[in-house]
Amino acid sequence: MNLRKILLAAAGLGIMILNASAQTSKRYTVAKPGTLVEMLTEDEANEITHLVLQGKLNAIDFRHLRDEFKKLQILDISNASISMYAGKNGTHPDRFYIYPANCIPSYAFCKQLSDSTFIGKTSLTQVILSDKTKNIEDGAFKGCTNLKICRIRKKTPPNLLPEALADSVTAIFIPLGSSDSYRRGKRWETFAFIEGEPVGATVQIATMGSLASELIRAGIQPKDVNFLTVEGKMDEADFTLIRNYMPNLVSVDLSKCNATVIPDYTFTQKKYLLNITLPHALKSIGQRAFSGCGRLCGTLELPPGVTAIEYGAFMGCDNLRYVLATGDKITTLGDNLFGNGKDKLTYRKE
């Protein structure tokens, strides 16, 4: 075969898991709220990466999920109920707090270290919430800087309290037909909503131009792909596919492909795109290659071999903090890179 693929699409907890030996999946039914920690040892908890919980939970269980379970990446509580709890052993920094039923507790995955310092659970990459969820309480996922996917089974938006989610890094997947309802929800207006289940594809290409055919052969429509990793050989046809037929990309990793150029307009108006890792061999970025990617966030690191960035390459990327040049070879720098008069291009000093 010209292409070897590792493809896990819309498969619940299996999505985007490329190294099966590195994951530990467990499923528990918690009969009595607050007793999750009694069902396993501390060592067992700290090895779990993928966890499905059913039954009844409360804020005590969330405190253990936050403070133990050191490797927890994916948490599915879509078939669990959350009981009311009033007491001192929950997640809120206050000693005594009342936690309402069927609400993700305040500071569920964010721990206070001092009066002004909080730290989120950085191992967490995906959560799946029940259709019974009423609120996502204040600070619930504050500081969870690697939370890329929040899947909500509810057709109407839960109440979103202050600092409950980091909208610049989290993609929200919701039931089909519910986008309009979420867009009207208070504090939800800045999020991008993707209807349906997350779809991820990792492909290794030996023959250039075959990305489209191999996705179709695997039963995946390019328009459905949210998380894309491409390794091997890419050409203009592959980038054209990305530009014209993959509107729902959230995360892209091209670090192990051979491309030396990101062609003009490749990622223009990818409104869901949160992050991208560029090819190691990259030399140039075409004009308006990322223009209109308003949710592209954080710092985009350029490979050291980049020599040219063309006109308007990052125009409209308002959430992008910096474009970091790691080499000293840039000789062509187009006008109006960012389109807002702000110089976000910076260089790493060795």
UniProtKB/TrEMBL annotation:
Residues 1-22 form the signal peptide. The keyword Signal applies. It comes from the Bacteria. InterPro entries: LRR_5, LRR_dom_sf, Surface_bspA-like. Keywords: Signal. Pfam families: LRR_5. Coiled coil: none annotated. PANTHER family: IG-LIKE DOMAIN-CONTAINING PROTEIN, SURFACE ANTIGEN. This is Leucine-rich repeat domain-containing protein. It comes from Bacteroides clarus YIT 12056.
